[in-house]
Each structure stands twice: as C-alpha cells, then as structure tokens.
Amino acid sequence: MLSSPTQPQADRLQPSPPSPTALYLGLQNTPTQFLPAARAFLQEQLNRAAKLTCDLPDSPEQLGQWVIAGNTRTTQAYREYLDTRKQGQPRRYFANRAHALFFLRGVAPTKLVDGSWLYGVLPQWQDLRLHTLVRTYLEELGEGEPEQNHVVLYKQLLAQHELEDIESLSAAHFVQGAQQLALGHLATDFLPELIGYNLGYEQLPLHLLITTYELNELGIDPYYFQLHVTIDNADTGHAHKAARAVLDNLPVTGDAQEFYQRVRRGYQLNELGLSSTGVINSFNLEQELHRVLEQKALVARNMHSDFCRIEGRTINEWLSQTGQIGDFLAALEKRGWIHRDEDPAQSRFWQLVQGNRAPMFGVFSAYELQLLHDWIAGEWLINDQPNRPRKFISPNRNQQDHRAGAGDFSAEQQLLEQELRTLGDNSRTQRLIELMSPAHHYKPAGLLATRLFARLQA
What we know:
The protein is an all-alpha fold. It is built from 24 helices and 2 strands. Strands 1-2 form a two-stranded antiparallel ribbon.
C-alpha cells in the first residue's frame, strides 16, 4: 500500500501559481481556464492591500468632499509645476524623448486593458445601482468609436513608435493589468472591491497632467493621456461617478460597514505593482541601450563579415558573448566611430543605421534608434536649443474615419449583423456583451457590438 505524501511533498505536487505576466495573457486569451488562478491571485493581492494605509474617509458619505479635495490638491500641485517650468526648470519626468518612449512601453500592459475591471458589471446593465459603472465602461470603450476607444488609441501610439514588444517586460509591469482583468472576470464575487478599485483608478493624479504636458513638448501625441484628464474630472467625470457608485451600491440591508471595508481594500489595490512614476524613475538610458543591443546581438553575432575590425576584434567576435556591449561601445567611441555629446549625425556609427540608404537600414526600430540617438547626443541634446523637439500638433480627429471599408475589411461586422438578426433579445444582448470583453472590444466586431449596446443605454 502506498503511503500518502508528506506535506512538503504534497506542496511540491501542487501546480505553481502563474506569474502576473502569464495570468495577464491567460485572462486575455482563455479567461475561463484561468479563473481559479485569478481568484487566488486577487485574494492574495487584497490581503496585501489590507496592510496598507488607506486615505479614504471613514464614512462613504464623505467621498464627494474627498474627491473635490484631492482634485484641488492635484491641480494646485500642477500649477506649481507649470510655474517652475516658466522659470526655466527642466522637465520633471522625461530627460529626453527616449525616456518618454520607455515610459509608454513600460505602462503598456496596464493601458492595453484600460477599463477592463468594469467588464463584469455589463450583464447587470439594467440594475440602476450599476448605471454609473456601466456608463464608465462604455466611455472607456469610446462607445464603439475607434477614435475614442482607449485601447485602440494606445495601440496606435505603440505602433507609431514601434513599442509593441511588451512581453519581455518584468512581472511587476503586469500586476496592475492582471488585477484589472481578474476583477473584470470575477465581478460577481468581488463587486465591492471592483467599486473600490474603480474609485482609486479614476481619480485625477498629478503624474497624468505632467505626463501629458511633457509628451507634448517632446513631439509625442499626448491625446490618450489628455483624454483621461478631461473624462476623469471631479465634477461630472469618472472621478465623480466613481464616488457616486459607492453610495449607489451601499447596502440598505446587511452590513454597510463591511461593504465599505471591502471597497477600501479594492481601492488599495491601486498601490500594488509598478506605478507610472515607478516606470519613469526606473529609466537608465545606458542600461536600456545595453539591453536592446544585447538582444540584437543574439541574432546578429554571425551576420557580419570579418573585414572590419574594432580594437583588433571582428564585429562577430564582439557580439559572440553576452556582457560585451559596454566594452564594444567604448571601443567604437575610442576608434572615432561614435562622438558622444555631439550631433549624432557626425558619428559614423549613426550613419550606418539611420537613413533609407544606410547599410543597416531597418535593423533598429524607431524606439531603438531613439535610444541610440539620445545616448550619443548626451549633453548636446540638452544644450543645443535649435535641436530641441517641437511641440506635437494634434490632428483633427473629428475628420478621421477609421471604420472598416467594404468587402473583406468589413466582413466581421457584416457577419455579426447577420448573426444578431437570428437571435432573440436576451441572446442578442449576451452576444454583444461577449464581444465587449477586454480581449475583443477594440476589434471591428467589438467596436460594432459596443455601438449597438450603447443604444440600449440611450
């Protein structure tokens, strides 16, 4: 007869919980399969959040005043920031354009599931207590208009600067997004926590205002961030609606205090994971450049001829082992291929990688080129006033039409319309809700589903 395993052995037999990255990707692709892991993850995060200091008022009836007071502090701090800039102080967040692009990539896992924590309230869309939460989710989705859908906007921003490769980011970058997806798919069991998380996330933070200002200075489209400044306002926007949702759902029977304590724990989830300012502060230009070049070396180490030698070594030899990038760059600088703190156009190495006729054209993405450019430029970029980037001029988005054209480009929408005509009212609404999930709402069928669902709210 076999004996039962000892406790340590039994623990080893238990599957390891997925990392925040794996959970994030799993909830996006196959959410049903990952729900048990999401529940365990969310409970663990809530236990951590319960140990943090909470600045919410003791009574939910004071939330309205709390929102206004927080908004006042933020706008006053922003006014002080603007005053320092007028006095000639440098940017507070982004030392250069590469730093700003690093930030856009680093916060992408969170931005690409924007609003997802609210998805789980859609099946209860006719419950008046949840009206403000449903409306908030629809507004995060741009009510089905691609030029207003937050995820569409952020995907466009990433594509413009070739920043889509986010899978290699650390697990800490995926914590907030994993929490949001978990709340969205487990709303039935974590509604007070969802409401509390929404309350925290929809408040206007100082970093959002400063980010919008400095991205614009660096010639990077700030519209995604500007949109959040306006819709999250404390008067009629998401910040106000988030506080209203707490009061709307406060139980008349049962333990209202326990409900509010769960709201407070959900609110504290906003403090976990890597924050926006944490991403900003983690930037080191040289380290990031080394990371990119080390990654390039994995596929480039046998692709160069042996004709060129730097400090007695071929390019292939320099790239043959990890950890040599710093020495390789130093050798290029020593041999005059790179002139630091000068216009990068004067460096022979830059001429090899930049321009349509450059021998290495296409090897580096737009982001990678920006890293190299700003690393070479150094002090020149700071001191050379005429070469500072100009402010971004926003396009007239009211004249843009991103909807699919005819034929195969609109096949998804046509098939969906045909399918919906065969369904009864309840089944039709359920189908629309399925397509408004975090995994689908930004796609053509999801955008159409959102527009049709929004009509039910009208």
